[in-house]
Amino acid sequence: MLGVIRRWFDTDEVRETGTTPDYRFSLANERTFLAWIRTGLALVAGGLAAAQFLPPMPIAHLREGIAIALLLLGGAVAVRAVDHWARTERAMRLGRDLPASRFPAVLAILVGVGALVLVAAVVVQAFDGA
Amino acid sequence: MEREPGVPFERTQLAWRRTLLAMGAVAVLGARMAAVDGLPLVVAAAVAVWVAAFVLGRRRIRTPGVRGPRTLVLLALATVAYTGIGLLLVLD
């Protein structure tokens, strides 16, 4: 684990592996990384907005739970973006296949399930109020 | 169009600007929440993280070329810092 983190910071280590790929590929990898960071920032923004702007919920601490889940998910997306960038860069330099990842599918399922749970909560609340 | 050498770099520059802009919005949300909660130090931290990311990002995209991962790691850490600021404010 610590070795992985040290490798992220060691700029020369990545550059000494294999051969330098076409700069367009490296820049594309960087843009993909930035897109993931924006995804993470959007989740963090959602968490901050939920904490501030949602009305108090019928279920105790549901608002705080939503906020904390979104904040943690956003941070995880950002950390994973670094790891994926490094593995892609390494694969390009070594002429290997790009790393496959289940993370986008996992993230999609988590966000989808979270949305469905919230829809269910809103529907239940509507019928209780009526 | 891809043969034009400056275009991939310009796209990367624009991606950096979008990202820093998004981080600015997160900084404002965090700073607002901290201000409402009466925590001036956290307001300062939210703004300082964004200023640092802005300066580092600007330096990276000022001249064309491919660079190492250090700034990318710091950008991810800045995002994680907002997770930390958010958790601090929610659990406070």
Describe this structure in words.
The complex is a heterodimer of chains A (130) and B (92). Chain A is mainly α and 130 residues long. Chain A contains five helices and no strands. Chain A has a domain of 80 residues. Chain A is elongated. The termini of chain A are far apart. The mean pLDDT of chain A is 89. Chain B is mainly alpha-helical and 92 residues long. In chain B, helix 2 packs antiparallel against helix 3. Chain B has one domain. At the A-B interface, helix 2, helix 3 and helix 4 of A face helix 1 and helix 3 of B.
Order of helices and strands of chain B: HHH
Strand content of chain A: under 5%
Q: In whole angstroms, how far apart are the ends of chain B?
A: 52 Å
Largest sheet of chain A: none
Please give the share of residues in helix of chain A.
over 70%
Describe what is shown at a glance:
The complex is a heterodimer of chains A (130) and B (92). Chain A has 130 residues and is mainly alpha-helical.
Please write out the topology.
The complex is a heterodimer of chains A (130) and B (92).
Chain A: H1 2-9, H2 11-16, H3 23-53, H4 62-94, H5 103-129
Helix pairs in contact in A: 3-4
Chain B: H1 6-36, H2 40-61, H3 70-91
Helix pairs in contact in B: 1-2, 1-3, 2-3
Structure characteristics:
heterodimer; A: 130 residues; mainly alpha; elongated; B: 92 residues; 3 helices; 82% helix
